[in-house]
Amino acid sequence: MGSMSAIEVLDRLSAFGCRVRLEGERLKVRGPDRPEVEKLVSELRREREAAIAFLRDRESRPPSLEEVRATLPQGVRLLSYQPRQTPFAVAPVSVVTDAGKFFRSYLRDLTWRMEYPAGHAAAPLNDILAKLADAGLMVEVVARKGERGEKING
Q1: Is pTM, for the whole model, over 0.90?
Q2: 41, 85, 141, 144: which has the highest count of C-beta atoms within 10 A?
Protein backbone atom coordinates (compact mmCIF):
# COMPACT_ATOMS: atom_id res chain seq x y z
CA MET A 1 0.00 0.00 0.00
CA GLY A 2 1.56 3.31 -1.08
CA SER A 3 1.71 6.40 1.04
CA MET A 4 -1.76 7.92 1.50
CA SER A 5 -2.92 11.14 3.07
CA ALA A 6 -4.66 11.03 6.42
CA ILE A 7 -7.99 11.84 4.75
CA GLU A 8 -7.58 8.99 2.26
CA VAL A 9 -6.80 6.56 5.10
CA LEU A 10 -9.80 7.75 7.11
CA ASP A 11 -12.06 7.45 4.04
CA ARG A 12 -10.87 3.91 3.34
CA LEU A 13 -11.31 2.88 6.98
CA SER A 14 -14.85 4.27 6.84
CA ALA A 15 -15.51 2.25 3.67
CA PHE A 16 -14.60 -0.90 5.64
CA GLY A 17 -17.13 0.07 8.32
CA CYS A 18 -14.54 1.38 10.79
CA ARG A 19 -15.20 4.26 13.14
CA VAL A 20 -12.23 6.47 13.99
CA ARG A 21 -12.57 8.88 16.89
CA LEU A 22 -10.31 11.16 18.81
CA GLU A 23 -9.82 10.62 22.54
CA GLY A 24 -7.58 13.40 23.77
CA GLU A 25 -4.37 12.93 21.78
CA ARG A 26 -5.14 9.30 20.86
CA LEU A 27 -6.86 7.90 17.82
CA LYS A 28 -9.30 5.07 18.53
CA VAL A 29 -10.32 2.76 15.69
CA ARG A 30 -13.23 0.31 15.87
CA GLY A 31 -14.02 -1.95 12.99
CA PRO A 32 -13.78 -5.42 11.51
CA ASP A 33 -10.71 -7.57 12.12
CA ARG A 34 -9.46 -7.80 8.55
CA PRO A 35 -5.96 -7.70 7.06
CA GLU A 36 -6.89 -4.67 4.92
CA VAL A 37 -8.00 -2.79 8.04
CA GLU A 38 -4.74 -3.68 9.84
CA LYS A 39 -2.75 -2.22 6.93
CA LEU A 40 -4.85 0.95 6.99
CA VAL A 41 -4.38 1.29 10.75
CA SER A 42 -0.61 1.06 10.22
CA GLU A 43 -0.87 3.78 7.58
CA LEU A 44 -2.99 5.84 9.98
CA ARG A 45 -0.20 5.61 12.57
CA ARG A 46 2.18 7.14 10.02
CA GLU A 47 -0.30 9.94 9.33
CA ARG A 48 -1.27 10.33 13.00
CA GLU A 49 -0.68 14.10 13.39
CA ALA A 50 -2.53 14.98 10.18
CA ALA A 51 -5.42 12.66 11.11
CA ILE A 52 -5.71 14.25 14.56
CA ALA A 53 -5.73 17.75 13.04
CA PHE A 54 -8.37 16.74 10.49
CA LEU A 55 -10.62 15.08 13.09
CA ARG A 56 -10.32 18.04 15.48
CA ASP A 57 -11.28 20.44 12.72
CA ARG A 58 -14.21 18.26 11.61
CA GLU A 59 -15.53 17.77 15.15
CA SER A 60 -15.37 21.47 16.03
CA ARG A 61 -17.52 22.53 13.07
CA PRO A 62 -21.28 22.65 13.60
CA PRO A 63 -23.05 19.56 12.27
CA SER A 64 -24.46 19.73 8.75
CA LEU A 65 -28.18 20.19 8.25
CA GLU A 66 -28.34 16.52 7.21
CA GLU A 67 -26.62 15.43 10.44
CA VAL A 68 -29.00 17.58 12.51
CA ARG A 69 -32.02 16.07 10.73
CA ALA A 70 -30.68 12.54 11.24
CA THR A 71 -30.04 13.23 14.94
CA LEU A 72 -33.39 14.79 15.85
CA PRO A 73 -35.55 12.35 17.82
CA GLN A 74 -39.01 11.33 16.70
CA GLY A 75 -41.58 13.95 17.65
CA VAL A 76 -39.25 16.91 17.03
CA ARG A 77 -39.61 19.00 13.87
CA LEU A 78 -36.85 21.24 12.51
CA LEU A 79 -37.97 24.85 12.19
CA SER A 80 -34.66 26.46 11.19
CA TYR A 81 -30.92 25.91 11.48
CA GLN A 82 -28.55 28.84 11.21
CA PRO A 83 -25.58 28.02 13.46
CA ARG A 84 -23.93 31.06 14.99
CA GLN A 85 -20.27 31.90 14.50
CA THR A 86 -18.13 30.86 17.49
CA PRO A 87 -17.64 32.01 20.10
CA PHE A 88 -21.32 32.54 20.88
CA ALA A 89 -23.24 32.91 24.13
CA VAL A 90 -26.10 30.52 24.94
CA ALA A 91 -26.85 31.97 28.36
CA PRO A 92 -25.64 35.10 30.10
CA VAL A 93 -22.61 33.23 31.48
CA SER A 94 -21.95 30.60 28.79
CA VAL A 95 -19.75 31.16 25.74
CA VAL A 96 -19.44 28.35 23.21
CA THR A 97 -16.09 27.95 21.49
CA ASP A 98 -16.63 24.44 20.07
CA ALA A 99 -19.85 24.47 18.07
CA GLY A 100 -19.64 20.83 17.05
CA LYS A 101 -19.35 19.61 20.62
CA PHE A 102 -22.12 21.96 21.77
CA PHE A 103 -24.66 20.94 19.10
CA ARG A 104 -23.94 17.21 19.32
CA SER A 105 -24.15 17.26 23.11
CA TYR A 106 -27.44 19.15 23.21
CA LEU A 107 -28.93 17.03 20.42
CA ARG A 108 -28.02 13.92 22.49
CA ASP A 109 -29.66 15.56 25.54
CA LEU A 110 -32.75 16.35 23.46
CA THR A 111 -32.98 12.74 22.28
CA TRP A 112 -32.58 11.49 25.85
CA ARG A 113 -35.15 13.99 27.21
CA MET A 114 -37.67 12.98 24.53
CA GLU A 115 -37.15 9.30 25.40
CA TYR A 116 -37.24 9.84 29.20
CA PRO A 117 -39.35 12.96 29.89
CA ALA A 118 -39.31 12.45 33.68
CA GLY A 119 -35.64 11.46 33.94
CA HIS A 120 -32.94 13.47 35.68
CA ALA A 121 -29.88 12.85 33.48
CA ALA A 122 -30.46 15.82 31.15
CA ALA A 123 -31.56 19.43 31.46
CA PRO A 124 -35.28 20.24 31.31
CA LEU A 125 -36.69 20.25 27.79
CA ASN A 126 -37.31 24.02 27.74
CA ASP A 127 -33.67 24.68 28.72
CA ILE A 128 -32.37 22.39 25.96
CA LEU A 129 -34.64 24.03 23.37
CA ALA A 130 -33.67 27.54 24.52
CA LYS A 131 -29.93 26.84 24.31
CA LEU A 132 -30.29 25.26 20.87
CA ALA A 133 -32.31 28.30 19.75
CA ASP A 134 -29.62 30.66 21.11
CA ALA A 135 -27.12 28.75 18.95
CA GLY A 136 -29.26 28.97 15.82
CA LEU A 137 -31.21 25.68 15.82
CA MET A 138 -34.96 26.14 16.13
CA VAL A 139 -37.03 23.00 16.61
CA GLU A 140 -40.58 22.34 17.68
CA VAL A 141 -41.60 19.41 19.85
CA VAL A 142 -44.85 18.12 18.42
CA ALA A 143 -45.25 14.99 20.56
CA ARG A 144 -43.44 13.50 23.53
CA LYS A 145 -43.16 9.80 24.31
CA GLY A 146 -46.49 8.56 25.55
CA GLU A 147 -48.39 11.64 24.33
CA ARG A 148 -50.51 11.95 21.22
CA GLY A 149 -50.49 15.11 19.19
CA GLU A 150 -49.71 17.52 22.02
CA LYS A 151 -47.89 20.47 20.54
CA ILE A 152 -45.17 21.95 22.71
CA ASN A 153 -43.39 25.05 21.42
CA GLY A 154 -39.72 25.56 22.32
Answers
A1: no
A2: 141
